[in-house]
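Notes from the 1:1 (GR / supervisor)

We went over the backlog. Supervisor wanted to see one worked example end to end before approving the batch request, so GR pasted a single chain during the call. The sequence is below; no edits were made to it. Supervisor asked that the structure be written out right there so they could see what the output format looks like.
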Amino acid sequence: MDSVLDPKLIFSALSFVFTAYFWLVKARKERPNLQFHQLSSFRLSSRRHPTKAGWKRHCLQQIESGGVLAVNHSTRQNSIILFDCFLMTERGVVEGDWGYSGDDKPPWNFGPETTIALSPAFFFDLPEGTAMPADPEFHAHFITASGTTFSHRFTLEAPQRRSSEPPVARAA
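Structure output shown during the call:
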C-alpha cells in the first residue's frame, strides 16, 4: 500500500478548509454590526411644554456636534434611519422623542468598515414636579434600513478613559 495521497482527497480537504473559513470568518463580518461610543458630554436643558400644561420638556443634546462615534464593523454598507430613546427614572422608563443637532439628521449612512460622527438629541416630557436625575441614564435603540436594532446606553457626562489604557483604546 502506497503512502501517496490522492489529489482528489487533497482538493477535497482544501475545499473544506476554504468553505469553513468563509462560513466561520467572512460570513460573520458580513452581518450588520454597529457599535456606538460617546465622545463628549450632553447638555441638559428644560423648558415648559408648549402644549401640555404642568409638564416640562427636557432636552439632552451634545455640547459639540459629532459627539457620538458610530462604528460599522461589517463588510457591508449600513444605514440608520431613525432611533427610539428611553430615559431611566425612579418612576420607571419614560419614552422620548428623538432629534438631531444642526444639519446632522438621519438617515446616517455607513460605508463598509467605517466610522461616522453623529449628533443625536433626546427629548423627554415629564410632569413639572418630577425631578430629573443628577446624572440621567438614557438609552437609544438605533434602527437600520434592514430593521436590525442596535442599542446603546448614554450618560450626561462622557465616559472618562484612564491614561493607562493603550492609545488605541483611548481613541475609540
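Supervisor's comment: The chain has a mean pLDDT of 84.
Batch request approved.
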